[in-house]
From TrEMBL:
It comes from the Bacteria. Belongs to the class-III pyridoxal-phosphate-dependent aminotransferase family. One of its GO terms (molecular function) is succinyldiaminopimelate transaminase activity. Its main location: cytoplasm. Pfam families: Aminotran_1_2 (PF00155). It comes from Carbonactinospora thermoautotrophica. Homodimer. Residues 26-378 form the Aminotransferase class I/classII large domain. Involved in the lysine biosynthetic pathways. It catalyzes the transfer of an amino group from L-glutamate to N-succinyl-2-l-amino-6-oxoheptanedioate (N-succinyl-2-l-amino-6-ketopimelate) in a PLP-dependent reaction, yielding as products N-succinyl-l-2,6-diaminoheptanedioate (N-succinyl-diaminopimelate) and 2-oxoglutarate. Keywords: Amino-acid biosynthesis, Aminotransferase, Cytoplasm, Pyridoxal phosphate, Transferase. The keyword Ion transport does not apply. The keyword Calcium does not apply. This is Probable N-succinyldiaminopimelate aminotransferase DapC.
Amino acid sequence: LNRRLAGMGTTIFAEMSALAVRTGSINLGQGFPDTDGPAEVAEAAARAIREGHGNQYPPGPGIPELRQAVADHQRRFYGLEYDPETEVLVTAGATEAIAAALLALLEPGDEVIALEPYYDSYAACIAMAGAVRVPVTLHPPDFALDPDQLRRAVTPRTRLLLINSPHNPTGAVLSREELTAIAELACERDLLVVTDEVYEHLVYDGHEHVPLASLPGMRERTVSISSAGKTFSFTGWKIGWVTSTPELVTAVRTAKQFLTYVSGGPFQYAVAEALRLPESYFTGLRDDLRQRRDLLAAGLAEAGFTVYAPKGTYFITTDIRSLGEEDGMAFCRSLPERCGVVAIPNVVFYDDEKAGRPLVRFAFCKRPEVLTSAVDRLRQLG
Ligand code: PMP
Ligand code: GLN
């Protein structure tokens, strides 16, 4: 393993999901739903395979139907206009979009500012690009962005801001004010922005997902990334996409074509249909997940965790110090044995170990009865 990837080991998600299988624990670690997405979307994929759509290499930028559907979705939900010919790129999940964007846009030694805690692939992809990660930490209880801290992190070497909202693992949803501060700074210092918005539809309690690209001056400097995994509960399909200017999309595509070239032909047809589902699908998903969030949040609080209720995503971050514990990593490694539940130690998403040490993340994209029995088990901890 080269120096750039030294110490990256196995992702925490793979480690913890394997632990869940090995110990027969309830897996509230890795974020994937335990029920599949809409049957008609699954059927669209099966039909595409049967009818021979996408069984051979699809076009490099993605099938035209999906690029059009992505563009229409951006207009329908946010009033953003993208040309499906030149401004949309289909990728192998958001994961490849992130990798391709960073590999395409960064020079070795460039600094990338990322919100900390950061999703694990950010650190790895910044490292693979030979660039340098500069974290700006979000702090409990609300994990708000401190615009002064962000401003102070910019140096002459800063090339790019890597933003994620709704934010994994904290569940923070950046407000219009926070996003405006990011936008003003990006324009003032002429920075590129890569924004990971895979949880765009998982926002609760009247909070609003505002795409960074919709702010003044941002469309031309922003690479927006999303994916079908979270919105349609098909995380295994790995269909993601990028929307940006022709120049930036071409740059990302240049890297992408040498990573996977193309992927998921038949699934692209199905996701094109999914993006056109009626409003009721999106509100239904949100309402359903909000109820599950409330169920798990209440249960975790009863079990003695300090709960930071998320505004978005399907994750709840907790602090275990109220249980008399300090070390989230040790806690998560022992939890399956102690009570048969798996969770994720947030410390793996931090450079600042002290900030992340007592924090533990639970996923609530699981059936209510599964959440209830997880909570019953966690109550025995006390
Ligand atoms: N970004 C974030 C913030 C995520 O939580 C995930 C989760 N899986 C991804 C990207 C990757 O998305 P995909 O599965 O579409 O590659
Ligand atoms: N995004 C998912 C999570 O945060 C994990 C995806 C993965 O395993 N790479 O749990």
